[in-house]
């Protein structure tokens, strides 16, 4: 057994390393984290938009550039495979890229249980074979049969995902639900289950619906208050409900002088995007 690594105090770095981005302003390189929110907040669409952006090198939400494009491994546990394909097609149309050229690999197994050793081994072997830059798991509740309210059960599963990230040098994005009665809670505190979820993430994105708007909060070090915000079009809508008109982007660590314009220009081919929106919950363009 080897000794623990140590370093003399005066040799320690005197400042944090410069942050490196996978998706600039949204997700750090090789970060683990949560995309969280309540029902009908487009959590899965945001995760898919990030996946398309990383795989294609196009800007996420047509606004946030990708610093290091690469392969994406996706497991969408709640959606039929044809629905996943159609959603990806719609997002690709908005991003002006072709699905057949997209380096996204979808796990087609009916179940993946990360609380079972056999499925962990299969996932690790798949990652080792494909070498993705981003792993997307949607949603967390379908990946286990543990008690999400018990920190002692949640922490080992999140620690496994952290170990996976470190071993394979990839980013890990997990979609997770918010509590139903979390209207007045801060974003990270609103996540369903143990507080381990918010504490675990290096990069977290939180979505909240308010009428016909969806608010996106991008916290830094768990802080979500007193932040500037900028409005930007949300490139999705449902065919069976009033569409969300705006995504309001909150960046707590951004200074007011560096905040993006309140009326940014985002170019999206709405006519092509809409053609992929024949069914409810499938993305289409709203401008």
Helix percentage:
10-25%
Mean pLDDT: 78
Q: Radius of gyration over alpha carbons?
A: 19 Å
Sheet with the most strands: spatial strand order = 5-4-6-7-3-8-9-11-10
Q: What is the general shape?
A: globular
Tally of individual helices: 6
Q: Structural class, from helix and strand content?
A: alpha/beta
Number of strands: 11
CATH fold label:
Rossmann fold
The main sheet comes to:
9 strands, mixed
Report the top-level CATH class.
Answer: Alpha Beta
State the domain count.
Answer: 1
Query: Which architecture name does CATH use?
Result: 3-Layer(aba) Sandwich
CATH superfamily, by name, is: P-loop containing nucleotide triphosphate hydrolases
- The topology string of helices and strands comes to EEEHEHEHEHEHEEEEH
Q: Which stretches of 5+ consecutive residues score pLDDT under 50?
A: 221-233, 236-246, 252-287
Distance between the termini: 61 Å
Strand content is 15-25%
Written description of the protein model:
This protein is α/β, with parallel strands linked by helices. The chain has a single domain (29-274), classed as Rossmann fold, CATH 3.40.50.300. 25% of the residues lie in helices and 18% in strands. It is built from six helices and eleven strands. The chain has helices at residues 43-56, 81-95, 117-130, 151-168, 196-200, 270-274, and strands at residues 21-23, 27-28, 32-37, 72-76, 104-106, 134-138, 171-177, 205-210, 213-217, 229-233, 246-250. Strand 8 (205-210) and strand 9 form a beta hairpin. The longest helix has 18 residues, at 151-168. The termini are far apart.
């Amino acid at each position: 057994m080897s000794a623990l690594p140590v370093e003399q105090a005066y040799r320690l770095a005197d400042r944090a390393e410069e942050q490196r981005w996978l998706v600039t302003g949204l997700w750090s390189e090789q970060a683990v984290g949560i995309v969280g929110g309540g029902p009908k907040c487009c959590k899965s669409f945001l995760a898919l938009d990030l996946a398309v952006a990383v795989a294609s090198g196009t800007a996420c939400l047509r606004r946030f550039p990708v610093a290091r494009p690469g392969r994406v491994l996706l497991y969408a546990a709640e959606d039929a495979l044809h629905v996943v394909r159609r959603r990806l097609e719609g997002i690709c149309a908005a991003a002006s890229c072709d699905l057949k050229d997209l380096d996204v690999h979808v796990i087609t197994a009916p179940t993946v249980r990360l609380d079972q050793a056999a499925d962990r081994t299969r996932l690790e072997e798949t990652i080792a074979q494909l070498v993705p830059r981003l792993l997307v798991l949607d949603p967390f509740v379908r990946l286990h049969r543990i008690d999400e309210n018990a920190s002692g059960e949640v922490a080992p599963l999140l620690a496994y995902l952290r170990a996976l990230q470190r071993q394979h040098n990839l980013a890990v994005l997990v979609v997770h639900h918010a509590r139903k009665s979390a209207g007045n809670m801060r974003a990270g505190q609103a996540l369903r289950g143990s507080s381990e979820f918010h504490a675990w993430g290096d990069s977290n994105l939180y979505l909240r619906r308010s009428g016909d708007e969806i608010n996106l909060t991008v916290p830094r070090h768990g802080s979500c208050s007193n932040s500037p915000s900028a409005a930007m079009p949300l490139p999705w809508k449902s065919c069976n409900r009033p569409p969300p008109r705006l995504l309001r982007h909150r960046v707590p660590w951004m200074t007011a002088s560096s905040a993006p314009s309140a009326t940014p220009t985002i170019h999206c081919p709405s006519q092509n995007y809409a053609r992929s929106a024949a069914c409810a919950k499938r993305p289409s363009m709203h401008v």
